[in-house]
Amino acid sequence: MEIEIATIGGYEEVGRQMTAVRAGDDVVIFDMGLNLSQVLIHDNVETEQMHSLDLIDMGAIPDDRVMSDLEGDVQAIVPTHGHLDHIGAISKLAHRYNAPVVATPFTIELVKQQIESEQKFGVQNDLIKMAAGETRRISDGVELEFVNVTHSIIDAINPVLHTPEGSIVYGLDKRIDHTPVIGDPIDMDRFRQIAREDNGVLAYIEDCTNASKKGRTPSEAVARRHLKDVIYSMEDYDGGIVATTFSSHIARVKSLVEFAKDIGRQPVLLGRSMEKYSGTAERLDFVEFPEDLGMFGHRKSVDRTFKRIMKDGKEKYLPIVTGHQGEPRAMLTRMGRGETPYDISKGDKVVFSARVIPEPTNKGQRYQSERLLRMQGARIYDEVHVSGHLNREGHYEMLDALQPQHVIPAHQDMKGFSGYVDLAAKQGYKLDRDLHVTTNGNTITLN
Ligand SMILES: [Zn+2]
To answer: What are φ and ψ of residue 381, in 5° steps?
Structure first.
């Protein structure tokens, strides 16, 4: 059976991930993501109303025209987890394929919400839930399996396409976490088993985000401990404390909510995406929040909450808000600009349970947001965070567990691949023989 891999998006950037694998006559697409930085750089771009081709030209969504080079029928579209750089283009591209979207329950729910807010295209693809550990038949001899992995969003998996020629493991995105705060540890046993089955692993497509960083990515349990230390240290402070983190990072939000309670403050989630992700996670029973936890997304209810906080006393609350990257329209940025009823006073604490995404736009916006907060006297607690991506030793562990015949670095640009290429070369892989460094819009034929 001929196996071909199309590297469609996310091979020249972190964002707009999309890869297709053809096994004989059948094609499975992994991820269909958005490159948010290409959207945010334009003011007032409403992607909901935009056409696919315009978004492709902007570099915001994958240029899937290379799909016409693949001689086969698409049988499934498989997003690995709910981050926008993996699901954000489904509403713009999925309707071109007569295939269901197959993903874990939390991811499917986020895809559904995205399709519902789409205004340009009617997306009719079936949405099929498949849990980690389950398999689905694609065709004779070809099967799709979901292996549980750990990442900065719940319900993440690595899909594995079993073919008669060996398995294709699509490794985006993960870290090796044996003590995640929500959900099961990464299923390393299953990866090792897959390496030993039949023809082993034919190809491994890997998330190279942090491949140039030494050592091991710490567990979410470490971030939780760090966060606990920071929040507990503020127990005697009688002014305002505000925290921000990735709204899709449910484990982190859960820790923040718990520690706020521990120091006698009422946590409250503010901002549209805070309400969206945490509300969805709670509805699907991934997390149990205190019954009195308020979540507010709409401007009016947010303002009302801030007014109540100012009236009751800031020392009684801990708002958990959007804006960890200094996004101009996010809550914390608006608080810094004095656009909300919440007054930041001298000595108030602001906790960033996040890292600045190392990209000039983010860095600039975050700098500006922090400046505004500092000008009002806020004390900043930065980088209370661990990454969701593997560092070098994690990559080494994965290569050791899977023993793939071919490796394909992804989820970075050419410069970002270098750390991974270096590691793989030291493990005996050779460029253009079994180590395939590529760009967007190419195909690789494996046998
Ligand atoms: Zn991700």
So the answer is: -110, 110
CA of 176 relative to ligand 1 center, distance in Å: 14
Round to whole Å and give the CA distance between 319 and 253.
Answer: 11
- CA of 282 relative to ligand 1 center, distance in Å: 20
Tell me, in angstroms, the distance from the centre of ligand 1 to residue 420's CA: 18
> Distance from the CA of 301 to the center of ligand 1, in angstroms?
30
**Cα 320 to middle of ligand 1, angstroms:** 21
Residue 42: pLDDT above 80?
no
Q: Ligand 1 centroid vs 81 CA: distance in angstroms?
A: 7
Give the Å distance between the CA of 217 and the centre of ligand 1: 15
pLDDT at 387 over 90: yes
Tens digits of residue pLDDT in 292-343: 999 999 999 999 999 999 999 999 999 999 999 999 999 999 999 999 999 9
Number of H helices, E strands in the chain: 14, 19
Question: What 3-state DSSP class applies to 260?
Answer: helix
Query: In whole angstroms, what is the distance from residue 151 CA to residue 186 CA?
Result: 9
Q: What share of the chain is helix, strand, coil (3-state, %, to 5)?
A: 35, 25, 45
Tell me, in angstroms, the distance from the centre of ligand 1 to residue 239's CA. Answer: 35
Looking at residue 361, its pLDDT comes to 84
Tell me how far apart the alpha carbons of residues 79 and 93 are, in angstroms, rounded to a whole number: 13
Number of other CB atoms surrounding residue 110 within 10 Å: 26
Beta strands in 262-398 (DSSP E): 266-270, 294-296, 317-321, 349-353, 379-381
CA separation for the pair 103, 38 (Å, rounded): 26
Read off the pLDDT band of 239 (50, 70, 90): very high
Pairing verdict, β 135-139 and 142-148: antiparallel
> Cα(186) to centroid of ligand 1, in Å?
15
Q: Are 409 and 12 in contact (CB under 8 A)?
A: no
Distance 3 CA to ligand 1 centre (A): 26
Identify the residue whose tokens are 């640009």.
413
CA dist., res. 224 & res. 181, Å (int): 8
State residue 50's pLDDT score: 87
Please tell me the distance between residue 151's alpha carbon and the centre of ligand 1 in angstroms. Answer: 7
CA 209 / ligand 1 centre spacing (Å): 10
How many angstroms does the Cα of residue 108 sit away from the middle of ligand 1?
15
| 195 CA from centroid of ligand 1 (Å) | 24
Q: How many CB atoms lie within 10 A of CB 186?
A: 23
Residue with tokens 């929500």: 182
| Average confidence (pLDDT) over 365-383 | 96
- What spacing in Å lies between the alpha carbon of 21 and ligand 1's midpoint? 20
